[in-house]
Amino acid sequence: xxxxxxxxxxxxxxxxxxxxxxxxxxxxxxxxxxxxxxxxxxxxxxxxxxxxxxxxxxxxxxxxxxxxxxxxxxxxxxxxxxxxxxxxxxxxxxxxxxxxxxxxxxxxxxxxxxxxxxxxxxxxxxxxxxxxxxxxxxxxxxxxxxxxxxxxxxxxxxxxxxxxxxxxxxxxxxxxxxxxxxxxxxxxxxxxxxxxxxxxxxxxxxxxxxxxxxxxxxxxxxxxxxxxxxxx
Length: 232
Known about the structure:
It contains eight helices and four strands; from the N terminus they run ααααααβαβαββ. It is of the alpha+beta class.
């Protein structure tokens, strides 16, 4: 009989270290999910945070700040489309078409956000009529909020001193709910009652992270006050 033996202990040890079931896939899945979330959120961050930064830091005015934010956002969406189409093996002509389409979608979305808010996302038709008086950066930000949270409701935007008197409150001359020198209202209120507290806190933190002033307080009712500070 031959005494030849094959030592399988290294393979056995390696096999023993392998996680059972699909646990070994959890790490890669979480990493891919994290990357996809970042890629999905990034265009909105560039658009809104970029616009707020340009408006405050450079003091270049409302529409120039918005244009400066829209351009890199549209280019970023175009870059996404180009990369995905290239990975899928699309020809040069199709890649060019998809890139232009994605860029156009970015511009179209901002245009839509500036002029439209659904009735379900405002407290009343009066508030809906005030939508166009809000600062464009606030309109775009509130539109993104509605996209992520379809149940969000704007309860107030523009006000007059008479509105404060009707609410039994002294008029606040410094209120950003009043029309400012640039012709826009710089504040809005969002409904918080009847909504999960974790969601309310997340919305408050999101607006703060994007450069707005967000404050949960009680005037005539519990609400989240969001405002865009004036430059300078």
